[in-house]
Description:
This protein has no helices and 30 strands. By secondary structure, it is an all-beta fold. Strands 14-15-16-17-18-19 form a six-stranded antiparallel beta sheet, with no helix packed on it. A hairpin with a 5-residue loop joins strand 24 (259-264) and strand 25 (270-275). Pfam families: ANAPC4_WD40 (PF12894).
Amino acid sequence: xxxxxxxxxxxxxxxxxxxxxxxxxxxxxxxxxxxxxxxxxxxxxxxxxxxxxxxxxxxxxxxxxxxxxxxxxxxxxxxxxxxxxxxxxxxxxxxxxxxxxxxxxxxxxxxxxxxxxxxxxxxxxxxxxxxxxxxxxxxxxxxxxxxxxxxxxxxxxxxxxxxxxxxxxxxxxxxxxxxxxxxxxxxxxxxxxxxxxxxxxxxxxxxxxxxxxxxxxxxxxxxxxxxxxxxxxxxxxxxxxxxxxxxxxxxxxxxxxxxxxxxxxxxxxxxxxxxxxxxxxxxxxxxxxxxxxxxxxxxxxxxxxxxxxxxxxxxxxxxxxxxxxxxxx
Length: 329
């Protein structure tokens, strides 16, 4: 039976992550909490808006209401990567070769490992940024689609157009697909590996009763798990045309609650599912088998993160009741 080590914090906690084997919890207050031989706190921002784990450097990259972009190391050390005075940094992404992307308003920026910052103006407000898995390339989600920029080249962006507001953006691990979550309770996807001159293939993934705020690719990229429904909606991406014409899996269905966070296991075809009532469970893709990881709590789950070996799962909550689950008990 899984066991839960609770961590009760004050206020909304935005994100959970593991740096090495140490669980981190990024609170909207700007405090970064970690459980490293005791509960330790680093004050990073005057108001935190975004936090992502940088897998390449095993650090946390954060953006805040103070206009700062920071890198938090496993020992809690803070390094400032950039500052945009009088602006809120609500979008951050970590990429290969030490690159970090961030945005405010209609400008997205990429900071390279040597400190060089490249700017990419957009015609609309930037809602999300993701790095492609191959090559130093970013996808920027905005109103009416995604702008694709090569960071090291002075070339015009490739625009992937689809009417509507596109919020978060993600690349499939093999780089063949780009998927966005939309304001209208749907996902939209583009197939990138079409032949030159061929028409872009679109993918519409609809039927959600709420906005999709959490996306997670399975370890081999064959599945994309999503929130926004009373179950985790998991789309198949193993075929050359992705989910087109194929129904999704619906895992961990519960009545009267919504899935608010998903996180695929680092080694198995299993997804951890967090709900609006604070419950967390794990479900297996092959047979839909479920294991309860945490009973309902005080607030909706905002984030779930697996440790590298997949034995531990950290979760964050909008009410501050966080914790670490030991799967083996």
